[in-house]
Structures are given as C-alpha cells and as structure tokens.
Design a protein that fits this description.
This protein is an alpha/beta fold and 323 residues long. The chain has a single domain (2-320), classed as Ribonucleoside hydrolase-like (Inosine-uridine Nucleoside N-ribohydrolase, Chain A, Alpha-Beta Complex), CATH 3.90.245. Helices cover 38% and strands 18% of the residues. The strands form two sheets. The chain has a nine-stranded mixed β-sheet, sandwiched between helices. Strand 2, helix 2 (40-53) and strand 3 form a beta-alpha-beta unit. The relative contact order is 0.16.
Length: 323
C-alpha cells in the first residue's frame, strides 16, 4: 500500500507515524506537515526527526503555516511546546531537510505518478488538502482512498463543546474537502474516543527506565516515552482518563485493516463561524444528489480488538519491548 500522511505532528500523530512505519504492507511515500497542534516549523521538524529515526524513506514537505481564512490556533498545552511533550529546543535537530516542493504541490503530484494506488491519511487541519483541491482537483481525485481524522457528531467536541480540533482550526478547508464528492472516510471523535491506550496497558510493557526524559536525544523509545507520559498526564488532569486517546493512529488503522471501522454514508456540512464554529453536521446524501457524487463514509465505531492488536504488535512491543 502506497501511503501519504498529512499531519500537524503532535503526540498521537507521532504514534500514527510509528504505526505506518511499522506496517510491512505500507510503503510510506511522503509526510507533509501543516500548522495545527504546533506551528508548522515545529511540525515539520517532528516529521523529519521521526522519519529518519525510524529509518523511513519518505520525503517530507512543509505545508501551510496558517489556515485558509482564520488565525492559527495551536494545541501546545496538549502536545508540549515542541509538539512531543517537551519544551522548545528539547529535541535534537533533524539530520535531513524538507524538500523544496510545497506540501500541496506534492499532494497533487504523487497521486498522478501512481494513479489509483495511493492512500492519503490526514491527521491535522485540512489546509494542505484544500489547497491541493483548488490547484488540481483531478489529481486529488486520483487517490485510491482519503482517510481523514476529524469531526464530531454525537460525541462532545474537544475544542469547545461541539467541534473537533482539526475541523475547528480550519473550517473553510474542511468544508471544501468534505464537500468535494471524493471517496472520503471520516474518522471523528465518535470513533476515536473509544480508541484509548491506557496507562496500565502501556506499563505492562518493559518500558525503558532511567531515560533522559528532559532531553531524550535521538532515541525513539525515549522520545515516545516522554511524549506519551505528557499526553496522558494532560488527559488525566483534563478529564480523569488515565490514558490517551489514539485519534490519529485509528485513522492509519482504517487504512490497514479492512472493516475495522463501522461507517455510515452521509453528507457532512461544516459550520464556519459563530459559537458552533467547526461543528460537523450530518445531512442525507439524497438531499444533495445534484451536487454530491457520494456521501462521506463516517465512522461511528471500530473493532477495538483489531486496533489494540495493531498497537501492541506494531508500536508498543517494537518501541517499548515485550510484555
């Protein structure tokens, strides 16, 4: 499976990269960064660092540093100033650089080079994808699948009461992409808040002890150890959950395991402004038949056993050791 990942690389995005990199059926062609969890330069640095430490061959392209219309909102209180659970400057500089090609151009070039073969997984605001659609809609239509982590329907929002963060940050981009009529699978909070890595499950592995967590260097285990600790500490303080939501890894799992998601087809509208900014609203596909080729496949649940098995086998055991 040829895959491209577009992400605002924070902590659960990093776990998603590890999952993709640890999946033998995946050829990760490219990772593109977008401003969201952190400013785009921080996200790009994290993409580069993780890609090289995991031994990946993916090219990395820097994407948009701001939403299409709105001012940028970040989530560094959740992910740390460096996006991976630490303060600014706590991670080593990557040995590689992003390519000169802007992310949106790369997102249009790769599906045309491999038409019908590339799966696009997005785990951040949809700014880059919207720019790619504006530049070359036929190229974006050449992706085999587009899987988007974003949105909230029956589940409470995580940015305000009704909106999910990725959609809230750039609702104009989300409206453009989700209204495009392309073959899109949307993985909202309704599914991802049931995908939880608990602290007890994590500590069942022989996690490295005595690691330099303040400045973890070029050790993937130490970087993820610190990042996940920070993520779980934030979630416990915020909601009492002693664990972390695996929002973005579930989107990758949707590409890897056929049938892992329970989906319903519907048109998805996005509220752009006001107190409901970023809210995703369901509407019947047939009500918009004239301008909508198909509905979005929206996930409202998933096979938790299959997902946990993926995390165990492709993230936890390889990174932290056997149970």
């Amino acid at each position: 499976m040829k895959m491209v990942m577009d992400m605002d690389t924070g902590i659960d995005d990093a776990i998603a990269i590890v999952l993709a990199a640890g999946s033998p059926e995946v050829e990760l062609l490219a990772i593109t960064s977008v401003a969201g969890n952190a400013p785009v330069d921080v996200c790009t640095r994290n993409c580069l660092l993780l890609n090289e430490l995991l031994g990946g061959d993916a090219v990395v392209a820097a994407g948009s540093d701001r939403p299409l219309v709105k001012s940028l909102l970040t989530a560094q209180e959740v992910h740390g100033a460096d996006g991976l659970g630490g303060h600014a400057g706590s991670l080593p500089a990557p040995a590689t650089n992003a390519i000169d090609e802007p992310a949106f151009e790369l997102l249009t070039r790769l599906p045309m080079e491999h038409p019908g073969e590339v799966t696009l997984v997005t785990t951040g605001p949809l700014t880059n994808v919207a720019l790619a659609l504006r530049a070359d809609p036929d190229a974006v239509a050449a992706y085999a699948r587009i899987i988007i982590m974003g949105g909230a329907f029956d589940a409470p929002g995580n940015t305000g009461t009704v909106a999910e963060f990725n959609i809230y940050v750039d609702p104009e981009a989300a409206a453009l992409v989700l209204g495009s009529g392309l073959d899109i699978t949307l993985v909202p909070l309704d599914a991802t808040t049931g995908a939880v890595l608990t602290r007890s499950a994590l500590t069942a592995h022989e996690r490295a002890r005595g690691l330099p967590l303040e400045r973890p260097g070029r050790d993937v285990s130490a970087i993820l150890h610190r990042a996940i600790d920070h993520y779980m500490d934030f979630q416990f303080d915020e909601s009492g959950l002693d664990g972390g939501y695996m929002h973005d890894p579930l989107a990758v799992a949707a590409a890897l395991v056929p049938g892992i998601l329970e989906t319903h087809d519907m048109r998805v509208d996005v509220v752009g402004n006001g107190s409901d900014r970023g809210r995703t609203v369901r509407a019947p596909v047939q009500a918009h038949a004239a301008d909508q080729g198909r509905g979005v496949h929206v996930a409202f649940g998933h096979n938790d056993g299959a997902f946990i098995q993926l995390l165990e086998g492709r993230v936890l055991r390889p990174v932290f050791g056997p149970r």
